[in-house]
Amino acid sequence: MNIKFITLVSLLIIVPKLVLAQKKHIAFNNPEIQYEGRIAFSDSTACINWSGTSISLNFKGSEISAILKDADTANYYNVILDDKVISKIHLSKEKQNYILASGLSKGKHKIQLYKRTQWGQGQTFFYGFETDSSAKILAKSKPKKRKIAFYGDSITCGHGIESAEGKDSGAGHFENHYLTYGALTARHFNAENQSISNSGIGIMLSWFPYVMTDIYDLTDPHDKTKKWNFNNYIPDIVVINLFQNDSWLVNKPKHPEFIAKFGTVKPTDDFIIKSYESFVKIIRAKHPNATIVCALGNMDATKTGSKWPNYIVKAIENLNDKKIYTHFFAYKNTPGHPKVNEQKAMAVSLIAFIDATIKW
């Protein structure tokens, strides 16, 4: 009798502890989770690829975590609590529960995971959030009234943005799309941001065997069968910042991509202009009502004497479209890719241009 009684009491003590340890799971497809960017959904997860893609949730609770798995080990995310960056997390290839915030005060909170790194650093699989069992999930924020889309290269990705001055690195640790000119501009206008960017990419030539026309319309850039539905995101403004890589590669006749595209003959000025014109036509067809800003810079494609800004000017003149503009960022005249302050200067320039030129 005594033994049975003790066992029963023990069970009564253990069970409440198990109940207290339970968490509330919010699946990736919960309607109150807010996504920004192109997301490749499946039955079990949301696949995150592009720089600047984010996942947000409003809630009341003392803690929150996210269940994530990475296809590589090069991806980093900013953890943003109540619109303030509080930490950076580095993902592993194991499916894990990452604690994002704990010990939170009572009241409403907003958690956001923001992809710092570009799609070439690998895919991330998001399975959902977890909160304390007593937490309350709140309605998602109202959609932003303004929308911007960017098509760009490493400058738009934020490649090497946090590398030491005078140095440059393609490691994911040094990328931070959150501090790029595009992200800063979008936040200034409280606009939703979609960034389709890739380090090393061009319009005619890239450092690899594909160009922007091969990936601009993909939901998942790792899968050419997953095409993006452009009706799902209708931007007010589209910014194109490409041609930097083209400007280098047309002068490298021994590079494999030059040989594959041009053989031994360098492209003519007219071919370069027509190539840019053709790409802008493609973008215009996908974004028929948007104002398009054809930008360039702030690396050496815009230094004094460069022909590349003029190529773009002539291409846009040929299109004769009153809602397409050009805007060139000042040459930064420093080694490597633009760092945080140089990206900020680009944002200031673009914001001023938009304020002066575009009504939205």
Overall number of strands: 17
Query: Low-confidence parts lasting 5 or more residues at pLDDT below 50?
Result: 1-20
Shape: globular
The number of helical segments is 9
Structural classification:
alpha+beta
Strand content: 25-35%
The portion of residues assigned to helices is: 25-40%
Mean pLDDT, to the nearest integer, reads 93
Following the backbone from N to C, one meets helices and strands in this order, namely HEEEEEEEEEEEEEHHEHEHHHEHEH
Largest sheet: 6 strands, antiparallel
Can I get a quick summary?
It is built from 9 helices and 17 strands. The protein has helices at 2-20, 154-157, 181-188, 212-215, 244-249, 256-262, 269-286, 308-319, 340-357; strands spanning 23-27, 34-36, 39-41, 46-48, 54-60, 64-70, 76-81, 84-90, 96-101, 108-115, 124-132, 136-137, 146-152, 191-197, 237-241, 291-296, 324-328. Helix 3 crosses helix 9 (340-357) and helix 7 (269-286) crosses helix 8 (308-319).
Can you describe this structure?
There is one protein chain. With 360 residues, the chain is of the alpha+beta class. 27% of the residues lie in helices and 27% in strands. The protein is built from nine helices and 17 strands. The strands form three sheets. Strands 1, 3, 4, 6, 9 and 11 form a six-stranded antiparallel β-sheet that branches. β3 (39-41) and β4 (46-48) form a beta hairpin. The longest helix is centred in the first third of the chain and has 19 residues, at 2-20. The termini are far apart. Mean pLDDT is 93; it is low at 1-20.
